[in-house]
Amino acid sequence: MSEGESHILLPIALLNFFILITGKLVCGDSLETDKQLLLNLKSFLEDQNPIDRGFKYTQWNPTDLSPCKWPGISCNTTSNRVTGIDLSDNSLAGKLFDNFSSMTELASLDLSKNTFSGSVPTDLGRCQNLKFLNLSHNIIDGEFNWTGLNKLEVLDLTMNRIRRLTIPEICDNLVVANISSNNFTGEIGKVFDQCWNLKYLDLSCNELTGNLSLRFDKLNMFSASHNQFRVFLPSWIFTQHCSLLVLDLSQNLLFGELPTSISNCKGLLKLNLWGNSFSGSIPREIGSVLSLKELSLGSNNFSRDIPDTLSGLSKMVFLDLSKNNFGGEIQEIFGQLTQVRFLMLHGNSYIGGIVSSGIPNLVNLSRLDLSDNQFSGPLPVEISQMKGLEFLILAYNQFRGNIPSEYGDLLKLQALDLSSNRLTGLIPPSFGKLRSLLWLMLANNLLNGEIPPELGNCSSLLWLNLANNQLSGSIPSQLASIGANPMPTFLLNREKDEVSAGSGDCFAMRRWIPADYPPFSFIYPLLTGKNCRSLGGNLFKGYVLVPVCEFGSNVRKYQVPGYIQLSENKLSGEIPPEIGKMKNIIMLHLGANEFSGRLPLEIAQVQPVVLNVSKNKFSGEIPKQIGYIKCLLNLDLSFNNFSGPFPASFGNLHDLSKFNISYNPYMYGSVPETGQMLTFEKSSFLGNPLLHLPSFMHNSTDNTKGKLNENHKRQPTKVGALLVILILVVAFLVCGVMSLLVCLVIKCPRYTPGNLLEDTQGRTDFPLSSGVSSSRMSDDVKVIRLDRTSFTHSDILKATWNFSNDRIIGRGGFGIVYSGVLPDGREVAVKKLQREGIEGEKEFRAEMEVLSRNGSGWPHPNLVTLYGWCLDGSEKLLVYEYMEGGTLHDVITDRTRFTWKKRIQAAIDVARALVYLHHECYPCIVHRDVKGSNVLLDKDGRAKVTDFGLARVINSEHTHVSTTVAGTIGYVAPEYGQTMQATTKGDVYSYGVLAMELATGRHAIDGGEECLVEWATRIMGYGKKGFTRAMIPVAVLVSGLIEGAEEMCELLRIGIRCTAEKPYDRPNMKEVLDMLISIPSSHRGSTRSFGSCRSSSPLL
Length: 1100
Known about the structure:
Its EC number is 2.7.11.1. The chain is α/β, with parallel strands linked by helices and 1100 residues long. Among the domains are: 25-206, Ribonuclease Inhibitor (Leucine-rich repeat, LRR (right-handed beta-alpha superhelix), Alpha-Beta Horseshoe), CATH 3.80.10.10; 210-299, Leucine-rich repeat, LRR (right-handed beta-alpha superhelix) (Alpha-Beta Horseshoe); 561-567 and 588-695, Leucine-rich repeat, LRR (right-handed beta-alpha superhelix) (Alpha-Beta Horseshoe); 783-881, Phosphorylase Kinase, domain 1 (2-Layer Sandwich); 886-1027 and 1035-1078, Transferase(Phosphotransferase), domain 1. The protein is 20% helix and 19% strand. It has 17 helices and 58 strands. Strand 1 and strand 2 form a beta hairpin. It is globular. Mean pLDDT is 79; it is low at 5-28, 499-503, 699-725, 737-780, 853-857, 951-965, 1022-1036 and 1081-1100.
């Protein structure tokens, strides 16, 4: 080879060498690398989610050549790289993956609608090509630093618990930022000033304060509603180049006059300033914003001078000027707003002017709300001219006279609320023409006559409330047809997207809810703030569904919750058997009338969740078919003349939470000593002398004097016999103990910590109790022990005297508790769960394996030790340590012996237990039923939590991960009604109620007009951030004395923080424990910036 060729080939060889190296390096950033990283992500998620719930990543097969067809994965066909990951709405939990940045071409990441927790890894901020990031609807907390995401265009963090956000100095690419419903505090400042292309910014539902220093010459949508802005709006923020389409500043503390410069926003479509303190006149200039469609200025202090320029807003369909205290006659300007379809003027103290203002001439009006004013006289018949009306709300006024029959000509009407007036006369039969009517509310009037059978033609009528009138006659059989087919109305509403059917505030929607009854009691707390409009809209579109049972089955189906309330009238006669044809009705309240005859057995076919026929004159036997309404929660048959035997089928009502059969003196027989019947107090059975109650209720039937005398004469004989028996028992015990010791020394094996499953088949020393369905002998049963000491099923039977009633020490919603002593001398409490059937065996076993996974019975000083559990077919037993101090519930009202120091200590003990369950167990345990009766006291008064995890066990008959709301009324967090899922924040809410009980010495629900949470919130003040300086009289606190008042005051404040309406506003249990521990040292006798106590006791 020549020297020249060598000079040529050398560079070529070097070039090939570098190409090879470069090729090798490119392969490192390849689809294969992306695939391996996705498999790493899969392993990471599997470790945190061991139970397969149909996750998308379970189908990620490592043998596939490419991951691009995997569920949730998208690729760029040009670069052949993974560019998108979508694992949204997949029930995932745990921490966030910390190596997304290694997928260097990742442009879209959607992990929304899961329950990811913890902070955002710093690695996520290094995904330099990320353009779309959605982490919304999780429980992520801490700080999010995304200074490295320079290419980000869409950021959605809504519904988390993030407290701090650090954004890049240059964020030119950002178009959408939604950080609503988090825990952000402080001022906005100039955080987003460098985001020149930002069009949509949502800061709502946080705790932001300070000035609104943003300029609206770039943004199209800005929402800062539900914050703490306490400023006046400067005119300069609405520049000549204002580009706003939507502005929502509702539910803040803004004051002063509305700047006339708002007219610079020529493209504005929606302006919502509801719920502030604006004053002065509504600026005339707003009439020049010709694009405006929705104007909400309600709940402010505007003057009653409405500018006539509003009539020029030809596109305005929604106008809310409610709660401005206008007074006097309705202004005539409203009669000129012919373009408006939704007009809200409720809560203004108007006294007249409905007709003179010209409102009846608004033929395009769809919704008219004039409720909560001071109108009087007859209902205006002229309203019947408004043929387009769908919602007519005239409640809470002083209207008198008859309901005009012409209202029946409003054929598009979907909701008619005339409640709480002074109306008399008949219900117009013409209402039968209202085929689209969903809601008819005529309660709390003086209406008389019969229920018109024509109402049966209202095929959409799901919600009928005629309570508290003077209606008479019988229920027409045609009424069974109401609500049979609401779907055409629902479909009609689903086509309307421009304005929700539930527009306006929550006043009307809350009247729709019968808040005292489930499942409505869970929906009611959700009707606040932002949720009200959306939830109202979903309701009238048929999207709000609740689980109900099919007849005679535990199988749940979902349906719209309809109800019929006819209580407190003078209705009479028999209930027509056609009532069984009713559809979609889950609550039937016929109480406080004069119905008579037999209760038709067909009533069970309605499948109600609530059935109340109390305070009538029903007679005959109670239909046994009621016992097959598997989802029945409330049943009230009291104050009637029912006769015959107590239905044994009532033992099948496993979901029943409220029951009353009192004062039916001709009922006889025995109340079943199984199922939920054992959980009710004697007050559910009063006034039934022929009814035999379980022994623990101490049957109220009086013995005759002869029997009393006979017992008195025989007493000495009985005492002598008892002494003889006692001596023999002691002798046998001594012999038994000696024999046991010998047996243990000679025969008993030595157990190792891993030997948790004892199989003792073949031994037949003691038969099973009659209450056990299995025919096997007791030592055939497997017992899971959580310590090294052996005990068998036979030992459990012996300890409880074969589950004798004499050993019963408690009853509850989960079962019966027996006391006993194991052969090794340990005092135990044996809980025999009440749910029958073998369907839940696998679920029970799985849950118990979770509870017993550490093999040591949860050796936490503030958790009742679980010694072991036993599963034999349908029989499920739990063996706990015995707590001799009773329950915390029993001593809460004892203001003398249960001192403030003991109360603080009990609060700390329970908090430590929940900290352990929430933060030190993996995965965490959600208690789901924190309350005083689930907190036991030892002999020294220290508190221990019991029943942790049991709510989940009991409700696992139908699914391992229960979506049925567990808990106790008064302690259940409001969000359970929407999510139907328990969370740690739900436990925090229940703990807050318990803290309030400890601080005040009263129970959560004690028969007062206000429940404890409502009362405490009112006393402490309604401030969203911190509390007002409410002066709390010591007399309302538990101590009643100056000593300890400050501590109880602070405990009450902690309870209020824990019961915040929004879950993300509640502290976690670690934070709660920190606050509790600091009470004795830092708050005794000190003053506090967010409230104070005093020792005087003025009237509340």
